[in-house]
Amino acid sequence: MQFIDQAEIQVEAGKGGDGMVAFRREKYVPAGGPSGGNGGRGGSVILVAVENLQTLLDFRFQRIFKAENGKRGGPKNMTGASGSDRLIEVPPGTMIYDAETEELLGDLVKPGQSFCVAKGGKGGLGNKHFLSNSNRAPEYALPGLEGETRMLRLELKLLAEVGIIGLPNAGKSTLIAALSAARPKIADYPFTTLVPNLGVVRKPTGDGTVFADIPGLIEGASAGLGLGHEFLRHIERTKLLLHLIDITDINPVENYQTIQNELKVYGRNLKDKKQILALNKVDAVDLESEEIQELVSRFREMSGGKVFLISAVAGIGLKELIEEVWQVLELEESLIQ
C-alpha cells in the first residue's frame, strides 16, 4: 500500500439561496401583499473520521470538494431548500490545518468524530421579511451569502500505542511480524520499510494493542534526511517507544545515541516518552562473552532501566519483552486517569 500522510485540499461551502420577490395573487384577495420566501442555507463541508480508512491516498486524485448551494426562496412565503452538506471521509488520526495560516483547526482522533471546515452561506431574505407599516409592498429581496472557501492541509498521525524505533536493519519489521499477524516486507538492506507497518498484538485481557514499526530513522532524520522527517510525526501519538538495537552491529552504542539525539532534536516531547530498550539478534552472538556482558552493562547505564535481550527471528526473550510492554502501558494509562 502506498502510504500518503499529508495532503492539501480546497473546500467550498455552498452559497445561500436568493430571497424571492413575490406577491399574493389570489381570487377575493384584492391586496395580497408580499409573499416572497427566504432562500435556503448553503451546504457545509464536514470532515468525518471513519474506521476503514488508513491513508490520505484518495486526496491525491481529488483535491476540490464542494457542497451544494441553497435553493431560491419561493412564492407563498416558501423557504428554499437547504443545500446538502458535503461529507469527506478521512482516517482516524487526521489533523486539519489551515494551509495559509498553519492554524490547527481540528484533530479527528476517534472514528465517528466530525469537524465542519467550511460553513454554508445564509439564505437571502425574501420581500415578505421587509413588510412594515411604512412599506406595505416591498419590491426587493436579498441575495444569498457566499459559503466559506478554504485551503486545508491534512496530516495523518498513526494511532498506535507502541512505536518500534531503531536504525534500518535493526529488525523492527521482523519483530512486528513475530508479535502480530502483520506481514511486512523484510530484507537485508536499508529502507526495506518505506511505510509504517501496523500490527495488532493481543493482550492477556483479550483486547488488542496497535504496534507501529516506524521506518526511516537515520542520523539527520529530524532535519529531513532519509525518510525520517516523514515518519517522526507518527511517534507523537504513541504512549510507549520500543527502541530496538542490532547487537551484531559494529557500533550498537553509537546507533542508540543516534536515535536518541534525533528524538531530542525533533522535539515535541519525543525524548520524554517512556522507552523500553531491546537488544535484538542475540541468537547470533555469545551472550556469555565478556565483550557482550560489558556492552549490556553499558546499555543499562545509558538507558537507566532494564535491557531486554531478544531475537525476533528465533523468538528468544519475546515473552518477557511483551509482558514489560503491558506493564508499562497499564502504568501509563493509570497515570492519565
Structure description:
- The chain is α/β, with parallel strands linked by helices and 337 residues long.
- It has helices spanning 172-179, 228-232, 252-266, 290-303, 318-336; strands at 6-12, 45-49, 64-66, 86-90, 94-98, 104-108, 114-118, 149-156, 162-165, 197-202, 208-213, 240-246, 274-280, 307-309.
- The strands form 3 sheets. The protein has a 6-stranded mixed sheet with strand order 10-11-9-12-13-14, with helices on both faces. A 5-stranded mixed sheet has the order 3-1-8-5-6, with no helix packed on it.
- It starts with 5 loop residues before the first strand and ends with a helix.
- 40% of the residues are buried.
In short:
The protein has 337 residues and is an alpha/beta fold. It contains five helices and 14 strands.
Task: Break the fold down into its secondary structure elements and pairings.
Layout: E1 6-12, E2 45-49, E3 64-66, E4 86-90, E5 94-98, E6 104-108, E7 114-118, E8 149-156, E9 162-165, H1 172-179, E10 197-202, E11 208-213, H2 228-232, E12 240-246, H3 252-266, E13 274-280, H4 290-303, E14 307-309, H5 318-336
Parallel strand pairs: 1-3, 2-4, 9-11, 9-12, 12-13, 13-14
Antiparallel strand pairs: 1-8, 2-7, 5-6, 5-8, 10-11
Please give a handful of descriptors for the protein shown.
single chain, alpha/beta, 6-stranded mixed beta sheet, 5-stranded mixed beta sheet, 5 helices
